[in-house]
Amino acid sequence: MRSLIASSLLLSLASSAVIPKHPGSGNNGNRSHSNQTFAVELGPRPYYLVDNMDEGPLKEQLQSCSEGPFEVSDFVFAHRGAPLQFPEHTLESYSAARRMGAGVIECDVAFTNDKQLVCRHSHCDLHTTTDILNRTDLASKCTTPFTPASDNGTKANALCCTSDITEAEFKSLCGKMDGSNPNATTVEEYMDGTPYFRTDLYATCGTVLTHNEYISLVDGWNLKFTPELKTPEVEMPFEGYTQERYAQDMIDAYKTANIDPSRVWAQSFLPDDIFYWIANEPDFGRQAVYLDERVDTPAGYANATASIPDLAARGVKILAPAFFALTKIDNATGAIVPSEYALAAQKAGLDLVTWSFERSGWLNKGGDYYYQYVKPMINNDGDAYTVLDVLVRQVGITHLFSDWPATVTYFASCFGL
Fold first, then answer.
1. Distance CA 364, CA 330 (A)
2. DSSP secondary structure letters along 147-190
């Protein structure tokens, strides 16, 4: 089954158009214009999703856009690159995201033992996203070396952090598809845990990147940046390295590279990081994105919604909860509509960025975490576009993170985003 899914998702040349290459600076909406050309290629997945939609005006509109042109758009944030099929935060994943029209590419920023910044989704995910456990010279340095599953029901376990190794050691790793097998009795079995809706087709040895390499790469492509300062999973200060120094180091990397702040959306789940940038780096703080995970519980959702005016008063301009928190079902009409959180953000004049599209697998049984508030309305993969339409037209999101940028690029090009 996995091979069939992989085959249906491969990039193709059929859905390409020659488009202007992204200029990389300034704010001219989400579109890009220059004298250079670059061919955006979307492959078959957006077409599959459109064909899978319920009949109606939205499907007809999307069908009318089938031949493009498809353009690079800043509306499309490449979440970790293109991790639906490529090892996340690798050169290969970023290259795929660029090819699929993402105008903004993400690097989740963590630090190594020698206080250098690298691109990893979590401070401690090397055991699931790289081959570190297969490296006899590095596996012993992990915070928790591999322990196999046992007959008494204990699951396999490991924990390997960027702070366990140096930048040079990190650069020697191969990126793999994120996943692990909790029932594994060997390292090889543990590393073979790719989710059913992804593929290992391109996971031969992903090229991992430092934060500085990511900046150079994306700048060379004339695209834009959205670095996330990952919450440390070690006690801070770490060997004298403070949270404030960490936050400043991330911004300093863009200043050293002469990157205009308008090209950077710095993110964090920690509000203190956002407040630090607003106070100490206001040019970058204006586009700082507060990733709001408080919405994950009913009580947290209510608290987060009530706190939005205070966040605005403290200078926060952009909120970014998971997209489930921005919609709900209207009990009177049965339609998908903006949530209380979305309406509160609109009232406070805040922009909304949201995450993460194409991270849910099959939607024919109501979706998962990302569709939890509208689950009764979700019964086919094409319903992803139905939800996206509400997020754009009614909620008014300004950007959307996606694990497969092509899906969102198709929509963005069709509707001029």
1. 21
2. E---TTSPPPEEE--GGGS-HHHHHT-EE--S---TT-SSHHHH
Query: Count of CB atoms within 10 A of residue 149's CB?
Result: 18
Whether 128 contacts 178, CB under 8 Å: yes
Query: d(Cα 310, Cα 313) in Å, to the nearest integer?
Result: 5
Q: Which two tokens stand for residue 30?
A: 């989400």
Sequence-ordered list of residues with C-beta below 8 angstroms from that of 254, at least 6 positions apart, any chain:
215, 225, 261, 264, 284
CA distance 387 to 384: 5
Upper half-sphere CA count for residue 130 (Cβ side, 13 Å): 30
What span, in angstroms and rounded, lies between the C-alpha atoms of 269 and 289? 9
Cis peptide before 237 (omega within 30 of 0): yes
CA dihedral of 404, 273, 28, 108, whole degrees rounded to 10: -30
C-alpha–C-alpha distance, residues 169 and 112, integer Å: 9
pLDDT in tens, 179-233: 999 999 999 999 999 999 999 999 999 999 999 999 999 999 999 999 999 999 9
Burial class (CB in 10 A: 0-12, 13-18, 19+), 208: buried
